[in-house]
Amino acid sequence: MVLNKKISGIAKALTAAVVVSGGLGLSAGAMAAYPDHPIRMIVGFSAGGTTDVVARIVAKEISQELGQSVVVDNRPGAGSNIGTEMAARAQPDGYTLYMVAVTSAINQTLYKNIHFNLIKDFAPVALAAKVPNVLVVNPQLPVHSVKELVAYAKAHPGKLNFASSGTGTSIHMAGELFKQSAGIDVLHVPYKGSAPALTDLMGGQVQYMFDNMPSAWPHVQAGKLRALAVTTGDRSKTAPDLPTMQESGFPGFDVSSWFGVLAPKGTPAAVVDKLNAAIEKGLYKSDVQARLKGLGAVTVKTTPAEFGEFIQSEVVNWAKVVKASGVTVD
């Protein structure tokens, strides 16, 4: 009886080993074949904004490196939360990616009722780019510097509106920080992305905006908007003559946007590593670098682990800004 039990146990162990071995073999084969059909990249903002622009650049490079099309799927709304939640619920098979922006790190504490955890529900893949925000105004507004904008706002309390790509975005928070620091009475008008906000800014429905440089700068060059300052601590190489907010009388004002790729939690590490390698290789091609530089974007190489650590630090740092601003969203 004892011997039979031992034989039976050995047989079960051998059977389990064969099953595991076979599973590993299939898994390895699947990983080698990845990707064997198109990949979807969700973007939480409308087409035309900076997140969308960067996403399409990254999608094209992944496609070229891995030999499969990458379809950008714009899902705007709720300050990008709709897209973020959709990505978090997707199958962790490497065929759904999310172009995350700094907005999601802000939203983690800005929203009272949020249905995702940026750290726990995603597998970090790679940080794609960082860009400065730029303060732009409608050319009809009679101001040519940050100092003049503040003076005009104080002379016309409650008359100026500033746009953003959505409540809680770095664009919005930069506007709130400016409002508090300058002590001005202005109204925030949120939009579903930078593109519609810029359209109304150029049309005169709103008067100024802190927008990401990649989406705003072409309009500045075309004379449709006037740029007053960049929000980073250092001047932008794209516009070296444009002063910083700190140089314009706001010490400590340092806000930038960043964009990266996430996958749903549980996505195989081999897939994550393959995507990371494709993104890093693609973004550092000379023509891609030239295009990103023209948009004011700077690439930063990261491993998946390094990007994960970066996201954690961003969630913590933006929580402090959100608390100081007093802004919350139900």
Automatic annotation (TrEMBL):
InterPro entries the UniProt entry points to: BUG, Bug_dom1
Pfam families, per database record: TctC (PF03401)
Leader peptide range in chain numbering: 1-32
Keyword Thylakoid appears in the UniProt entry: no
Keywords, ordered alphabetically: Receptor, Signal
Family: Belongs to the UPF0065 (bug) family.
Name this polypeptide is given: Tripartite-type tricarboxylate transporter receptor subunit TctC
Organism this protein belongs to: Paralcaligenes ureilyticus
